[in-house]
Amino acid sequence: PLPLDWTKMAECNEGEDVAPVDAIRYPWDVMDFPLPPDQTETHLTIVGTAGQKITRMGSNLNEYVSGNLTHLVLRSHLIRTMEGISKLKHLELLELYDNMIDEINDLSPGEVEDNCEEESDDGLPAKNLRVLDISYNVIRDMNPISRCLNLQELYIAQNKIKSIRGIGQLKQLRK
Length: 175
What we know:
The chain is globular. It is built from one helix and five strands. It is mostly loops. The termini are far apart. The chain is 2% helix and 11% strand. Strands 1-2-3-4-5 form a five-stranded parallel sheet, with no helix packed on it.
C-alpha cells in the first residue's frame, strides 16, 4: 500500500467509514477562518497537497471570506461542484486546478438554480474575472466561459472537452 500519512487521505470523517472523496469537507474545515472575515484580505490560497482535502466549496463561502477577495486558489482538492463564487463580486483570479469539477457554473448571479433572482449585479464576478485556471478537472462544456468578457488568461488543460465553444467573444483573452 501507498504511504498516505502525509496527505491524511486515509482518514475518514469522525470515525465514519467514508471514503475521502465522499467525505464532506469545506474550506473552513481544513483551515481556520476568522469570523467575521478580515475585510482587508484579498487573497485566499488552500492547496490540498498537505492536509485534508476540501470536497465542497460551500454555497455560503462569502460568509467566511472577505467581500474584497480578488484571488481564490483551491488547488489539488476533491471538489466536484463550483459553488459560492457568484457572491464574490471582486474576484479576478480563480484557480481550481486539479479537482474533480465537471461543470463550470456559479460565475454570475443569473445562474441561480430557480432563476428567480434578478441579475442585479451586472454579471459579477464573471465580468471581473481576469484569470481562470480549471486545468486537470473533468469539464466537458466551455460555454459558461462566454460570460467572462474580460478574461485574459484561461487554462483548461487535461479536461474532457471535445470542442471549445464560448470563447469567440472573449476579446481580452491572451493566454
